[in-house]
Design brief:
The protein has helices at residues 10-24, 38-42, 45-48, 71-77, 119-134, 147-156, 161-172, 176-185, 190-200, 206-215, 220-233, 277-282, 296-299, and strands at residues 28-29, 35-37, 55-57, 63-66, 84-96, 103-115, 140-146, 203-205, 241-244, 257-263, 271-275, 288-295. It is an alpha+beta fold.
């Protein structure tokens, strides 16, 4: 054949280009097993957001599960002591579908940087997420948030812990009316409610939103979050890169930066990830971690 690339489907060609992009930046392919012990996922349900898995009994009697997630297994099984691991993967995971009545096989590709992770590594991962979306050739947007920005504001406003979950739900839904109702029930002042609404609904072009986010800072925690977002985006000057503080992650695992990627015409997220230092600690690992997953089925329209 004159050109072997001619026989590849659009999805296969996209995956090949992503592999080349990751390899060029020093990431090496990781081949995880297809299953873990069922109890491992039970212990980490708060990260998975679902308690239903495809299970089977191994020959030694242990109850096993087909993997619903890859990051958990990578953090569990890759030793990061005293160094840095730059890995990428291309595997399938198994989760309930949107209806919740059937399981579906999801094709994922992603990367993880674990262990020694600083500003340069964080910026590199954000740039790789940006370049991954860009190489599709389709209009896209990459939205970033930081867990500590709103967490810092809620601490400053002395909002009770028991009401924060409801506040975050309304923030994620971009529901200011619901947000105000929960804030009022929590005893937050009118001034505090206005501040919380302004900060949580910040969304748009990175340069403009970060200026306003700085203006609204009430403590050092919020200031550090804004500074880290600026550093993470550093060098990327593109209106397709946005800040959206409604993006939400679980504080048990995520520690700061969060990413979501979208393609025009696609109703679902095609890329997601962030910093998950807290997961590293929970798994007994040293160092920090950041990464993202690309949902190839969504990306390629399958």
């Amino acid at each position: 054949m004159d050109n072997l690339l001619d026989i590849l489907s659009p999805g296969e060609l996209t995956a090949l280009r992503l592999r080349a992009l990751f390899e060029q930046r020093g990431y090496r392919r990781y081949h995880p097993g297809r299953f873990e012990e069922y109890r491992f996922y039970l212990e980490n349900q708060s990260f998975l957001k679902n308690e239903r898995f495809i299970t089977f009994n191994d020959l030694d009697g242990r109850l096993m599960a087909l993997k619903p997630d890859l990051t958990l297994s990578i953090v569990k099984n890759v030793d990061t002591a005293g160094g840095q691991k730059k890995l990428y993967y291309m595997e399938n995971v198994y989760r309930p579908n949107a209806t919740g009545r059937n399981f579906t096989e999801i094709s994922q590709m992603g990367l993880e940087c674990l262990g020694r992770v600083g500003r340069a590594e964080t910026n590199e991962v954000v740039r790789l997420a940006y370049e991954s979306l860009k190489l599709t050739g389709e209009p896209f947007r990459l939205s970033l948030s930081h867990l500590r920005y709103l967490a810092g504001l809620m601490r400053n406003l002395r909002l009770p812990l028991h009401c924060r979950s409801a506040l975050y739900e309304n923030i994620a839904a971009k529901n200011p009316h619901g947000l105000r109702e929960v804030a009022k029930a929590a005893g937050l002042s009118d001034e505090g409610t206005v501040m919380l609404e302004k900060a949580s609904m910040l969304s748009g072009a990175a340069s403009e939103v970060l200026k306003e986010a700085k203006r609204l800072c009430r403590n050092a925690e919020m200031e550090r979050a804004v500074a880290q977002l600026e550093q993470a985006i550093g060098g990327i000057d593109d209106p397709s890169v946005l800040i959206d503080f409604s993006i939400r992650g679980d504080e048990d695992y995520y520690s700061g930066l969060m990413l979501c990627g979208y393609l025009q015409g696609k109703s679902r997220i095609v890329l997601s990830g962030g910093e998950y230092d807290n997961m590293m600690k929970k798994m007994g690992q040293t160092g920090r971690a950041i990464g993202f997953a690309i949902y190839l089925d969504e990306l390629c329209g399958r």
